[in-house]
């Protein structure tokens, strides 16, 4: 059994071009060192390479067993995993294990103190404005010139973007890369390498062979409609984490934001990410070591130093707020009943104040009115 595994590993090692090149380089290095420096040193280099390959193969084939032994080793030496969420304090009472207050509640007005560079803010402003002008304003302007609806959407988009950025900052990037991205990448690499090197499948038949052999594929790559349905599901998962429950309970708002995220944010983003030309350009730009022109370096340095930071999407929201304040007339209803005398209106008003945490103001007003 052991001999069979060794033969299988050596066969895969031989069929991999990169592995053959690395092995050839190490073997050449050990021979050169053995002839010109020391035969023992050359043998040590070769043995270290063989042991490293064997250890890597053993670790990849027995990941769960190695993980258990590493955990036991950590426990033996007293190392504990750090959980930043468990160590965070409650915003209300300061207790680290608060069972009373809702610590997963969305941040109210997350844009306060959130500063970004002015060019980036202008780019995001133009992006959101293009989405709203194309998808919302073209039909909303035919119904009413009231800007209050657009102001509400803009304010919610700004809040959602800030909450998304805050959550992105809380992600543990090394854990996501090592536990999610790298295993998926290596699984795809092994499948494609087997199809091309072992089965000798031509490049133009890889996709058909992948489907015929019933390899697991992502549901979004079947066709365009499947991709849209998948992105709608992603949007449904994102919306409760980005918008307040008051907005989510409104079906019109929920469906509108779901379509905006699906068709105007996630779908173009997925098309850009899956473009191989863009990926190649990014790789070339990241690995290009040619010295830049002195003038371009000085210009970029000047732009970095002169960029001022502004509150995120402040102008984006303020434009609609100014239109509301300047262009909308206040309609006064004659004979309007006092909300404090109507029990049904007062009940809903108190429920709203309880959600906003401002019910004390109503009690104070009622106490003053009784005096």
UniProtKB/TrEMBL annotation:
GO MF terms, alphabetically ordered: phosphatidylinositol binding
One GO BP: autophagosome maturation
GO terms for cellular component: late endosome
Record domain PXA: where: 117-291
Swiss-Prot/TrEMBL keywords: Membrane, Transmembrane, Transmembrane helix
Regions that span the bilayer: 21-50
Alphabetized InterPro entries for the sequence: Phox_assoc, RGS_sf
Entry-linked PANTHER family: SORTING NEXIN, SORTING NEXIN-14
Name under which the protein is recorded: Sorting nexin 14
Biological source species: Culex quinquefasciatus
Gene from which this protein is expressed: 6046957
